[in-house]
Structure formats: structure tokens, C-alpha cells
Amino acid sequence: MPTTAICPGSFDPITYGHLDIIRRGAKIFDHVIVAVFNNQSKSPLFTVEERLQLIEEATKDLPNVSCDVSQGLLVDYAKSKHVDVILRGLRAVSDFEYEMQITSMNRKLEEDIETFFVMTNNQYSFLSSSIVKEVAKYDSNVSDLVPDAVEVALKEKFKS
């Protein structure tokens, strides 16, 4: 039976760190759904539609990766897609502590859903969307942090 994993996130914007996890997940799983969720505790720079478009552009060379948007709980989305694996990246111990809480809650809500953690490649261990936005805001070079389409979109956002 083919295995599908969901790689959830706010992806505001998608970075090479995110892509590292998605690409590595695409080698492990038959299909990976990159699902954009709105994090209520964050004020996004990009709309959900813009984020989805940037992810689609960044993953277009991965035939077993699809992109989607969801509202609500991740476990409800996973059940609606008949998926029982969540793919998450870890950068540091602080990520692990947060992810452990989320994973425990997900297991409480839906015990059949497993979370698969992948350690981020060392070259991306410092990278976050927040850092990228901060650097781009001051017109510094982010070309080695994000795909070309994201770099262009960031320049457009901060132009005004």
C-alpha cells in the first residue's frame, strides 16, 4: 500500500530548509502533500494563495509532491485525506520540545496518526521564515536562503 505523508506548515515564505525536508520526504514516501496552514499566532506577510503558489513553483520538479491549503486541525485534515503520517523537520532542541507537545496532542486526538521527524540539513539549521523576512526587509541578499520566485516575491512585498 502506498504511503502518503503530509508536510504541514505556514510556509511564510517557503525556504530552502523547508524544501530540504520536503525533498527528503519525497524520497521516503510515495507521495507528500505540502499543506499550508494559517498559524493564528503569526501575522503572515504572504496570503495563503501566494504561499501556495510559491510552494507549487518550488516543488514543481518533484512529481510525487502536491500542494494544498487547509483550515482547522491537522489531524482532521489528515483524516480527510486518508493520511496517517505527518512529516516534520527539526532544527534544534527548541523545535523538538515544541514538536513533542504538538505530536502528543495529535496522538491524543487521533492515535493512528504517526509523526515522522527529519533533522534539517546542518546548512539550514539556523534558517526560519522569520529570519528570511527580516533580512529581506532590509534589502539584504536572500538568494541562498530561498528559491528565486520567493526572492522576487519578497522584494515586491518590501518595495512598498
Automatic annotation (TrEMBL):
GO terms for biological process: coenzyme A biosynthetic process. Pathway: Cofactor biosynthesis; coenzyme A biosynthesis; CoA from (R)-pantothenate: step 4/5. Its cofactor is Mg(2+). It is found in: Cytoplasm. It catalyses: (R)-4'-phosphopantetheine + ATP + H(+) = 3'-dephospho-CoA + diphosphate. Substrate binds at residues 10, 42, 74, 88. The keyword Ribosomal protein does not apply. The record marks 18 as: Transition state stabilizer. SUPFAM superfamilies: Nucleotidylyl transferase. Its main location: cytoplasm. ATP binds at residues 10-11, 18, 89-91, 99, 124-130. Its EC number is 2.7.7.3. Transmembrane segments: none annotated. CDD domains: PPAT (cd02163). Residues 6-134 form the Cytidyltransferase-like domain. InterPro entries: Cyt_trans-like (IPR004821), PPAT (IPR001980), Rossmann-like_a/b/a_fold (IPR014729). Belongs to the bacterial CoaD family. Homohexamer. Reversibly transfers an adenylyl group from ATP to 4'-phosphopantetheine, yielding dephospho-CoA (dPCoA) and pyrophosphate. HAMAP family: PPAT_bact. This is Phosphopantetheine adenylyltransferase. It comes from Aquisalibacillus elongatus. The gene is coaD.
